[in-house]
Design goal:
about 240 residues, 2 domains, two-stranded antiparallel ribbon, metal-binding, iron ion binding, Cyt_P450_sf, 12 helices, globular, mainly alpha, Ent-kaurenoic acid oxidase, heme binding
Length: about 240
């Protein structure tokens, strides 16, 4: 009889935790979907995740693992091969498309409006290419693209690029097992740094690559300006440089 008390207590605690989990998993649904009325029935299948965080934990965990496809795979396994799913990403209700047909549908449907996460807009700038209108974007791209990545501009650097690629490939052939994407990124970064800064310094490249990595992580994170979070580190990079 003495053991029945703790056992019932444990059952009660598990029941409360289960009920709390059930409530929390439906907060985003109550906040965002119920206000749509009958339109919510037209939403694709999916999962809005936890309050405020949404699906970001599983998203970031997957993309930092050796199996980034596992994030989309979880949606496919739970909701089938629909090619379009609802989710809660970067602090906003979102739609994820995974097939060419659904991508075309989204791009051609006026119901879908282009947008960027808050962290991306704040870090890259509201007046940058991502923050301006389509027509202004097209005009500025026309003015800048040729001078940066046009054939005439890049042809000046072809001998340098070719020499570096050949030399790097020879080094890779002697390295045995390596992390290909990391070394490819380093090669690309070295070439870009030479084109824009006319520098080949290993120290400068290492320092810039670290700052760029912190900035890149912040652009793809939630806008949480608290020490230890990627967005906070990226803001510090921006502050140090500008």
């Amino acid at each position: 009889m003495d053991m029945m008390g703790p056992m019932w207590m444990m059952i009660a605690v598990l029941a409360i935790l289960g009920g709390l989990k059930w409530v929390l998993r439906r907060v985003n649904w109550w906040v965002y979907e119920t206000q749509l009325g009958d339109k919510r029935h037209a939403l694709p299948p999916g999962d809005l995740g936890w309050p405020f965080i949404g699906n970001m934990w599983s998203f970031l965990r997957a993309f930092r693992s050796n199996d980034p496809d596992s994030f989309i795979g979880s949606f496919v396994s739970r909701f089938g091969h629909t090619g379009i799913y609802k989710a809660f990403m970067f602090g906003n209700p979102s739609v994820i498309v995974t097939m060419p047909e659904t991508c075309k549908r989204v791009l051609n449907d006026d119901a879908f409006k282009p947008g960027w996460p808050t962290s991306t807009v704040e870090l890259i700038g509201k007046k940058s290419f991502i923050g301006i209108s389509y027509y202004e974007h097209k005009r500025l791209r026309h003015l800048t693209a040729a001078s940066i990545n046009g054939h005439e501009a890049l042809s000046v650097y072809i001998p340098y690029i070719e020499e570096n690629v050949v030399c790097t490939l020879e080094k890779w052939s002697e390295m045995g097992e390596m992390e290909f994407l990391t070394h490819l990124r380093m090669l690309t970064f070295r070439i870009i740094m030479f084109i824009f800064l006319s520098s080949e310094s290993e120290e400068v490249m290492a320092a810039l690559e670290k700052e760029y990595t912190d900035l890149n992580h912040g652009v793809r994170s939630m806008a949480i300006n608290v020490p230890g979070f990627a967005y906070y580190k990226a803001l510090k990079v921006m502050h140090d440089f500008f």
